Amino acid sequence: MAMAIKIEVDGKNYEVKKGKLLDVLIDLGFDIPHLCYHKAIGSYGACRLCLVEVKENGDGWRIVTSCSTDVKEGMKVRTKSQRIWELRKGVVELLANHTSSEIVKELASLYKIEVKGDKKCVLCGLCVNVCNLIGISAISFENRGVERRVNAPFGIPTEFCVGCLACTNLCPTGAIRFENGKLMVGDRVLSEHKLLRCVRCGKEVLTERHYEKLGVKDILCENCKRLMQAEKYFNSKQL
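Above: the chain's sequence. Below: its structure in token form.
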């Protein structure tokens, strides 16, 4: 059994399991904003929204990204200090000047910041990182500075993409989307796909390339899968 780690958060004591500080704080019920982190992907540290103050071993308070910091015995954490509030506000101001997704609007309203941007992508990197993680690497960042954006190689719809849609499922802002067989960011087409239908109900289920990649026998939507499992269970009880 894993030994509990004792930490202090905003003046209160807790016993927690080892892990990334952001995960621990969220599990404890603390509202820590974040855009670029997902537990399945790991730490990227791009958005800087999850900043907190920590104090260890009698040292002074220091600013860290909670997504990339491991909890340690005796660690003290501040999530609501004036210093953290001002730093987060600065990050939100930058986001609001260039982007306008719903999550950015929500954050901006908390800090009474006007949203001036018109893009959804916040360059969090989740779509690129998950594509690399599963070994496809069909999309990547291009350019630098204010021109930085997600795109297919050479700006041409790529055939490397299998259409698994992991990128769209992880995108926190809805910037990367799948519409009418096309994977898109803004007005850019990243890849195009033929959609296959469920053999029972005819609902469009997955892309042809994803079907070939998975190597499954039958194409079934989730509802029909559950229905078939229920039918199989019911029929077994009749024997």
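The longest helix spans residues 82-98.
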